[in-house]
Amino acid sequence: MTGKFRSIRIATCMMGALIAAPVLAGPAAESISVSDPYVRIVPTGMTNTSAFMVLKNSDSKDHKLVKAESSASKVTELHTHTNEGGVMKMRPVKDIDIKAKGEAALKPGSLHVMMIGLKRELKEGDNVAITLTFEDGSSKKVEVPARKIQTEMKMEMKQEMVHDHKNMH
Amino acid sequence: MKKISIGIIAALALLLFWALVMRQPANENDQPGPAKTGGGDFTLQSANGPVALHSLKGKVVLLYFGYTFCPDICPTSLGFTSQALASLNKAELDKVQMLFVTVDPERDTLDKLKSYTAYFHPNIMGLSGTPEAIAKAAKLYGVGYAKHNTGSTGGYVVDHSAYTYVIAPDGSLFKTLDHGTPPAQIVDAIRAAMKKG
C-alpha cells in the first residue's frame, strides 16, 4: 500500500513542480548577463553611434531583447547588418533572440544598439546608461563605457594575436 | 570522286588551321568577385579643390566608398585602415593616400568630410561631387550603393559595397580588400602594391 501511494505522491509533486516552474523561473532580466559593453566614440559632429555587448542567457528558456533606451540619445533602436554580395545593409530589428543557455553578440558589422541624436559628445572614460527591456517586460540598466575606435582596434588586434598563437602549433 | 576527296582534304586542312591558330586559350582572369571592372581614373572634389586620381600616380591609393552618417561599417573600415597607416614608417606613409568617397553627397558636405576623415588619419582625404560624377567613379570599381528609407529616426541609410580598393602607383587596380580586413593584412597589401611600382 505504501509503495502505490508513494509513486502517486512523487508523480503529483513532479506535476506540481512542472506547473509551478514558469512562475518560479523569475523575470528574464535576471537570467541575462551583459559582458564587455561599450559605446563607440565617433568623430566630432557625428551624432549617431552604436553600442555593443555580449548578452548571455543562463536560463533554460529562450529570451528576447525587445527594447533599448538611453537618456544619452534622443532615440535608441535595435539594428543589424547584412552583407549581400559585398553590399552592407543596416536595418532596424524588432527584437534580438537570446537562446536558452546561449548568447547574442552585439558587435561591429552585426547586431547593435543604435543611438540616434547623441545629446553630448562622448569622451573616453564617460559612462552611458542604457536600459535593456526583455520580452516579459523585465528590464535591466547597464553602465556602458565610451571607447575610442583606436582602443577598440588595439583590443581586437590583441585578441587576434592570442588566437594566432593558439593556431601556431 | 577526286574533286570530292580534294574538298574533304581542304575542309580538314582548314579545320586543322583553325584548331591550331584561331582558338584562344581560356582567360585566366575570368574569376567571379568584386571589381571585375578593373578600376580607372576619375576626378572628384575635396575641401581643398578638385582631385584627379591620376595626379596621385607614384603613390599607393586606398579607395573607399562610404558616408559619414554610416554609424558602424565606415568607422570600422577607416579605423582598421588608419591602424594600418599608423604601422607604416614615414617614407612609406609619404607614398600612401586614402580616398573616402561619399555615396551621400546630399548630407556629406566637403567640410564635414574633411573633419570626419581627419579624425581617423591625416592621410585620408574625403571626396564628393555631383551624383553623376560619384556614380561614374563607383561604376569603374564595381561599387554598388543605394539610398534606403528604413523608417528609422536616424534618417535614411545608404547601403554600399564596403571593399577597400588598393591602387598601385601606376594607377592600376592592384587588389580588393574585404570589409573587416585586419590592419596587418592591409599593411601587407600596401607594401606589395608599392613594390609593383
Description:
The complex is a heterodimer of chains A (169) and B (197). By secondary structure, chain A is α+β, with helices and mostly antiparallel strands. Chain A has a single domain (28-167), classed as PCu(A)C copper chaperone (Immunoglobulin-like, Sandwich). Helices cover 28% and strands 45% of the residues of chain A. In chain A, strands 1, 2, 3, 4, 5, 6, 7, 8, 9 and 10 form a ten-stranded mixed sheet that branches. The radius of gyration of chain A is 21 Å and the shape is elongated. In chain B, α2 packs across α6. By secondary structure, chain B is an alpha/beta fold. Chain B has helices at residues 2-22, 73-86, 90-93, 110-120, 131-140, 183-196, and strands at residues 43-46, 49-52, 60-66, 96-102, 124-127, 145-148, 157-161, 164-167, 173-177. A five-stranded mixed sheet of chain B has the order 5-4-3-8-9. Chain B has a two-stranded antiparallel ribbon with strand order 1-2. Chain A binds chain B through residues 40, 42-46, 48-50, 74-75, 77, 79, 81, 83, 85-92, 108-109, 112, 114, 116-117, 149-150, 152-154, 156-157, 160, and chain B through 34, 68-73, 75-76, 79-80, 82-83, 112, 115-116, 119-120, 144-146, 148, 150-154, 157, 159-163, 178-180, 182-184.
How is the secondary structure organized here?
The complex is a heterodimer of chains A (169) and B (197).
Chain A: H1 2-25, H2 28-31, E1 32-40, E2 48-57, E3 63-70, E4 73-84, E5 87-92, E6 96-98, E7 103-106, E8 112-118, E9 127-134, E10 139-147, H3 149-167
Parallel strand pairs in A: 1-10
Antiparallel strand pairs in A: 1-2, 2-7, 2-8, 3-6, 3-9, 4-5, 4-8, 9-10
Chain B: H1 2-22, E1 43-46, E2 49-52, E3 60-66, H2 73-86, H3 90-93, E4 96-102, H4 110-120, E5 124-127, H5 131-140, E6 145-148, E7 157-161, E8 164-167, E9 173-177, H6 183-196
Parallel strand pairs in B: 3-4, 4-5
Antiparallel strand pairs in B: 1-2, 3-8, 6-7, 8-9
Helix pairs in contact in B: 2-6
